[in-house]
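REQUEST FORM: STRUCTURE PREDICTION
Request ID: SP-0412
Submitted by: Lab K.M.
Chain count: 1
Length (residues): 384
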Amino acid sequence: MNAMEPAIAILGIGTAVPRYQLEQTDASERLADALAENPEAARWAKRIFKQSAVETRYTCEPNLLEPAASCRYVPSKSLLDTPTTAERMEMYKVESVPLSLQAAAGALSDSRLNASEITHLITVSCTGFFLPSIDTALIDQLGLKPDVKRIPLTFLGCAAGLTAVRLSRELVEGNASARILLVCIELCTLHIQPSSEREALFATAFFGDGAAACVIGRSGSNQRGIFALDTNHSAIVPGSKDDMGWKVGNYGFNLYLSPRIPELIGKYVPAEIERLFAGSPMPELWAIHPGGRGIIDKLQALYELKDEQTRASRSVLRDYGNMSSATILFVLQEMRAGLRSQLPVLSGQDPKRGIALAFGPGLSMELQRITYIEPSFYWGEACD
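STATUS: Completed
RESULT:
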């Protein structure tokens, strides 16, 4: 990247979560109560919740905070009382729009761009559908231009946030005046299943709700700390299509996560990272999508990363759980906050180079080279 050429970059980030907070210990106890007649499942559930590395999450569904006797999502309830997919999609329609608006407004403010400057709107979600979709509400309520180019990315899973970042970079590369607003909204807890099966309990233990947005375009002198977007790479792990997947069921979406996922990542990801960096030194910054504690542990061990290098990913997992596609932007926001806190120390140093990684059904992976740049590095101006 030419030091005097405006970078294609994430210019601003915004995040939002629902108002209902799930405390992991409380949720574990309520689930154990619901499984009282199945002691083996109750013990397994407590073990999963304890080992998840999640302490708090957020949900748009207040019923999930109710005791087991009155919660409609627990395994002990009759399916006649369990929310149907239609009910869950109606709640998604109601709750997804305000969260998306909050995150998008935050990203626009952070980027110091006006809504009228946005040329493309990319919306990402795998936890709900309705038409007219979220993008029409965002255009109307944010004041985006009516001719903004809309691109919905649906049902791509946890990797979709970085898929959208990759697409945004390509759009700006082909059109220097493009300004993309990218909005991810995932209401994962709407799909908690009334099942005592281990796969369902695992998903119940660490998915949360959240929205995240970012603005991507050519950088300018009025932007604060940004993540420049360099080369990227996508790949699918051979023979892994059955290791992660979603299916639409009568009671929400059914998720399957194989226990082999950390093992597959350890086996196949290093070659893809090597291809991305093409012999260059390994990066200092690691924005790892916390699709589970085992994924972070595996990559930290493989690359002998310091705890500080995985701090952002572990903090997001601890405080919010896995919010599917939105999570990687939470990680980048957390990482940027940590870097900005070091500004007196970083002053005069070279920009910090890094990588963002996310994994989704397939088993697919998205890898994006990033460089953290402050205005003092790039424009020769004092950081505000």
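NOTES: The domain at 226-378 is CATH 3.40.47.10 (Peroxisomal Thiolase; Chain A, domain 1).
Reviewed by: T.R.
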